[in-house]
Design goal:
With about 300 residues, this protein is mainly α. Helices cover about 70% and strands about 0% of the residues. A hairpin with a 5-residue loop joins strand 1 (about 70) and strand 2. Helix 2 packs across helix 3, helix 3 crosses helix 12 and helix 4 (about 95-105) runs antiparallel to helix 6.
Length: about 300
């Protein structure tokens, strides 16, 4: 009878442990399938993909360079090309058009793509408007159930694990100490042993459920797999110039600030400070030498001056 009771209890506990795992598998598989279907139905235009990749300015600059609107020198400064100076010629897409308008506002002064990307308010507003327009087209992906953030569920899980471990120790001790009599008791003992073995593998089964139903970041994978056509069409030299201009955020500021004059003014101010410091130092040294010569007495053996002798 002991083997029969153990077989029933162990089977019930095993079902109580693996039931929630089966339910979790079913829920996560449904969410994964729905997520993949939603992502597969997304139709991203190239600039929307570049926006999600944080490469909007790079893609727009690449298109302007390819189409002959801009030229970028070795130091990362961008200038209008012959076609870019014609106000009647403008790219069809709003993002490269906004970048071209920003460069035209600074013409004829050199400006870097990095300065525009960080400091040109009108360009940032037009890019933000495009982002708001495209974000509403993205589907809302369902959240994968994982139980994280649920304090009550976490506490119940910990208590359940402790109870299952205690039950496993007691059931294993009873199973080992009891000697089955006859084929039926041996069969019940075998069922109990299988149930205990399954309980040992419950944690691994939970990890397998999460690994096999994990969908990762399908939208991010889709975005990363689609580089902008203009960026892909650039050769290595021109792409290096575009990236250098984007990384240059402080040197070429167009008509907003002349950096070299500021640097010259700063150098002149430093030189004036150095001259003043040297003048002060020379004054203190002269004063110190004068005071020292005034305090020194006559040299040893020297005749002190006395009153002039008469006659």
């Amino acid at each position: 009878m002991r083997q029969f009771a153990l077989a029933v209890l162990v089977s019930a506990v095993t079902a109580a442990v693996y039931g929630p795992l089966a339910l979790l598998w079913w829920r996560r598989a449904r969410v994964r399938g729905r997520t993949l279907r939603l992502v597969a139905a997304v139709d991203l235009e190239p600039y929307h993909t570049a926006l999600l990749r944080q490469e909007t300015t790079e893609a727009a600059a690449a298109e302007l360079v390819l189409d002959g609107y801009l030229r970028i020198d070795e130091e990362g400064a961008a200038f209008l090309a012959e076609q870019g100076r014609d106000p009647a010629r403008t790219p069809a897409h709003p993002l490269p058009a906004a970048l071209l308008d920003a460069v035209r506002r600074h013409d004829p002064e050199p400006v870097s793509m990095g300065w525009i990307d960080w400091n040109d308010d009108e360009y940032l507003q037009r890019r933000s408007a495009y982002r708001s327009e495209r974000e509403v087209l993205l589907p809302e992906l369902p959240r994968m159930p994982d139980g994280r953030g649920n304090v009550l569920l976490a506490c119940l899980s910990c208590a359940g694990i402790a109870l299952v471990m205690l039950f496993w120790l007691l059931a294993a001790a009873l199973l080992v100490t009891a000697r089955p009599q006859g084929p039926r008791e041996w069969a019940f003992a075998g069922v109990a042993a299988l149930g205990l073995s399954a309980l040992l593998l419950a944690e691994k089964a939970g990890r397998v459920v999460r690994e096999r139903t994990e969908c990762g970041d399908p939208l991010g994978d889709l975005v990363r797999s689609r580089p902008h056509p203009a960026v892909a069409a650039l050769d290595q030299d021109r792409r290096t110039l575009v990236l250098r201009s984007i990384c240059e955020r402080d040197r070429w500021r167009g008509v907003d600030t002349v950096v070299h004059e500021e640097a010259d003014d700063a150098d002149e101010a430093d030189d004036e400070d150095d001259d003043e410091w040297l003048d002060d130092k020379v004054w203190w040294e002269d004063a110190y030498e004068y005071r020292a010569s005034d305090e020194d007495g006559p040299e040893p053996g020297a005749t002190p001056p006395g009153p002039a002798s008469s006659g």
